[in-house]
Design goal:
By secondary structure, the chain is an alpha+beta fold. The chain contains 15 helices and eleven strands. A hairpin with a 4-residue loop joins strand 9 and strand 10.
Amino acid sequence: MATITPHDVTLDNGLRLVVCPDTTTPVANVTVMYRVGSHDEHRGKTGLAHLFEHLMFDNAAPDQDKMYDLYCTKAGGSNNAYTTFDYTCYHIDLPAHQLELGVWLESERMREFRITDHALQTQRSVVIEEINQNVFNQPYGIWRKAQQELCYDPTSSYSWDVYGSADDVAGVTMNDAHSFFETFYAPSNAVLCISGNVSIERAVDLASKHFGTIPHRTPPQTRSQFASNQQFRGVHTSVGDNVPMAATYISVHLPGFLDNELLDAEVAATILGTGRSSVLYKSLVASLQLASSVGAFVDRRAHTSLLTMYAFAAHEDVTADQLADAIHSAIAGVSIQESHLLAARNRLRTSHAAELQKAHGVADSVAWTTLFWNNPSYVNTVLASYNDVSLDSVRSILQLCSAPAECARLDVIPKTDA
């Protein structure tokens, strides 16, 4: 894969611009990543970061509602956004000759606060409905909300999920929204990445023209802090849900994504729960026939992450206790060899390399490494870094996963059994 050569410049207002030209593609991407997520919220005011992601689609053009999507669609483009615990990202893909439109649209989000009472009321309702649909009315959907509450002390802003509380979202005022914008949607709290079929000179000119005139605003001086004593281990709870069969989710605490150990965790999770050759599938599904579906993944956060293993019962007679015991036993009984390591590394490297073949994937990765590592070129080291993951480090993580005393276990069970 070709090396990405980022061009990095900081505008006078503090906005970090990174340009990643690629003349082999007919498209261009504009990505803006803000260093703000649900971790920057406070109890009683949760869900603001995700609500703001929705609100910003009403903040793109003066005195007009929903113009962002209209402009984008008419130009043959596509756009999206997402919110995490630690950052919020907006991106737009356009034909290369429409690049300036994308730069202008993203700059209008950042320029000033233009949210109307109508827009705030509408988006509060949209987000509340999203919470109801994806958390409370989705089978097993409640698990992630319950997991945060189980794994972290209530004093930690990692103890609620990115959606936050529907009641908190309903209570967001115009003053809350304006204050949030002025605090976090500042040029110096963001990275602008322009990738695809564009020259460095044109990208810098367009960024200076549209973003460079946005006034400097002081970024947050203090952010929510995280302490290791806010993590809970050896805990277990059950929640009743409208589900036909039991499921269990078992998580172990790991360092945040600023620590290289998280690559070890991604390899471990791949060995445990990705594909039919994984440890959990071969044991719980193929051999014991206790589970219909299993998996493992790493939930990445800046300061603390979770490796979560899960299993859904294959039939009504299987209990959450049986699933949990089988997960721990399968991990304790497996002997991880170099062949497992090689297969997992290759799967992860292939997936990451595929993302870097797209303008959007490049921009997202480069913006992230710039925002948190202050190094746009760090993206070029990730593929090679997977080769540094050792067998001993993966075995250490699996040892944690096999020990109930190191885990936080959440069961989702049919309400009739609660």
